[in-house]
Predict the structure of Delta(1)-pyrroline-2-carboxylate/Delta(1)-piperideine-2-carboxylate reductase.
Amino acid sequence: MIHMTLEDVRHLVETVLRRHGFSEPHVQAVAATIVAGERDGCTSHGVYRLPGCIATLRAGKVSPDAAPEVFDSAPSVVRVDAHGAFAQCAFHAGMPLLVEKARSQGIAMLAINRCVHFSALWPEVEPLTERGLVALAFTPSHAWVAPAGGIRPLFGTNPIAFGWPRADKPPFIFDFATSAAARGEIDLHRRAGKPIPLGWGIDKDGQPTTDPLTALNGAMLTFGGHKGSALAAMVELIAGPMIGDLTSAESLAFDEGTKSSPYGGELIIAIDPQRILGAEAARHLQRAEAVFEGILGQGARLPSQRRYEARVLSEREGVRIPRALYEEIQALLVA
Amino acid sequence: MIHMTLEDVRHLVETVLRRHGFSEPHVQAVAATIVAGERDGCTSHGVYRLPGCIATLRAGKVSPDAAPEVFDSAPSVVRVDAHGAFAQCAFHAGMPLLVEKARSQGIAMLAINRCVHFSALWPEVEPLTERGLVALAFTPSHAWVAPAGGIRPLFGTNPIAFGWPRADKPPFIFDFATSAAARGEIDLHRRAGKPIPLGWGIDKDGQPTTDPLTALNGAMLTFGGHKGSALAAMVELIAGPMIGDLTSAESLAFDEGTKSSPYGGELIIAIDPQRILGAEAARHLQRAEAVFEGILGQGARLPSQRRYEARVLSEREGVRIPRALYEEIQALLVA
C-alpha cells in the first residue's frame, strides 16, 4: 500500500485531470468528489474511479470543459444542462438556486440533465444539509440489474441518497445502490480475486453465481427482493423520463460498449423544515434526535457513522492506496 | 367464506361506521378505503381493518367527526390538520390545493398532521396519478420494528408508496412497508395459526422467531437489512418531525397500550411532469413505457399487477370474507 496525505491525493488527482485536458472548474469539482470518497473510506468511490474518468474521456463519452447552463424552469424547479460533462460542476451551478427555492417555496427540485455520473450521491446531499435542508438524490446508471422475477439487466444500480441536518453533529446521511451491491464493489472483488456473496448477481441464464466476472457479464440483483426492485424502477423513472433524461438502458446504448460512466440525469429534492415549521422548527428537529439516540442506544449504527470515523482518521493520518492502483494512476500522468 | 358484492361490503362498512357515530364525511371516506383494499385483494387492508377502527374509537384515540382544516402554508406546501380524525378526509380536503400547487410550482408537498392512519398508502397515491402527477407518500406508525443491528422496536412499519401516471393504463404504483412484512400480515398468520417466515421478526432477546405472537411481542425486522432500515429512519424523520408530527415511538406512547391505530403525520409529495417538461412531456412519458415493457417482457411483474387483476375480478364477481371476520363485524352492528 502507498501512504498519502489527503493533500497528496488531491494534488495527484488534479494533476491527472489537468494533464488530460479537463478545464479548471471540472478539475476542482471532480477531484473534490474523488478525494472525499477516498477520505471517507469509500474505496469504490475514491481514487479507484480516476482511471474510469480518463477512460470515459478517451472514449469521447464526457466533455472535459462544457460549462453548465442553469434554467429557472418553474417556481420550485431548477434545471441544469451539464452539456455532456461530469455532474459535479452542474450540481454546484444549480445548488444556489435550489437552496433559494427550497427556502422560499418549502420544497424544490434540481434536475441535472445530460451529465456523466460516476460518484456517490452523498457529496451532493451533504452540502444541502449544511444549509439546514433535508435532501434526497437519485440517479439511474447503466442497465446492469435485473428486476425481481426477471433475469435480464434493465435497471441501473440506481442509488438513493438522503440527508438530514443535525445541529452541532454530522448530518444523518445514507446513500446506497438499489442493487444488492455497488458495481464497483463487485469489480473490486474481481480485482482482488475474491468471490462475491450469493444474492449479488446471476449468470446469463439467471442462475445464482459467486464469481464476480460472471455476475458482471450476467445481471446484478436488487437488494431486498421485489421492494428493492420497485425502488430501482422508481429511480429509473423519476431521474430519467420525468426530468426528460435517459433510462439506464438508454444510457448503456449511448455507451456503445466503451464501458464509460453512465450518462443521463440526476434528481435532487430539497425541503426546508424552517419554511414548513417556522418558529417550531428547532423544537421538532430536536425531537428527531430521539430517533438517532434510539438507534445508537441499542448498539446499532447510523448509516454514515463509518464514513465520518474514516474521515477523522484520514484527515489526521492520510490514506493508503493499493500499489497497483497507484501505479495505474501514475501511468496516466505520462500516457 | 361469505360471498359479498362490493356494494354489499360498502353498505356493511358504512352501516358499522355510522352505527358508531362517525360523521357522514368520515363514513364515506373510510369506507371507500376499506372497500378499495378488499376489492384489490389486499386482505390486510380490507374489511379486516374495520374492527380496529371501532376499537380505536372506543379507546378514545380517534375523533369520529372532526373536520379537517387546510392551511396554505408556503408556495409549495399544504398542511392539513386532521384534528385527531382518520387521515382519509384530511387527504381529500388537502388534495385539490396539492394538485394546484404541483401544477403551478412543479413540485409540492402535502403534510397531514394529527391524523389516525390505518390504511394502505396507494389509495392516496392513485388519485394523484389520475391527475397526471407523480406521487410519493410516507407515514410512520407505532414503534414495532428494530433498526438493523439492533433488537428493540424503534421504527414503525413506515410504508413508502410511489405512483406514476400511464396513458390509457392503470398507473405504476408500489406501496410497501419498510418492515419485512406488514404488521397486519403477521397478525393474519397468528389468526390462521400459521408460522411466519424467518426474517420477519425476533423475540424479546433478539433471537429469530417463526411464531407470529412472539414476533408481535418482540420486534419486527426491516426488509433488506441496513438499507431497509435506513429507509425506515427516513420515513420516521420526514413524515414525523420534519412536518411537526410524532415519531413512531411517540405514537406508541400516545396509544397508552390501547392497541389503537397509529397517530401522527403523513407526507405526500406530488410532481408534475408537464410542468417540468412542457411540450416534451408526452414524448418522455412514452419512453418510460420501455421500462415497464422491459419488466413484463422478461416475465417479471409490475408491483400493482396482482392488485389490478384482483380489482377486475372483484368488480365482476364480488369478494369472499372469512366467516369469523364477518361475524365479528356483524357483532359490531349490535354492540
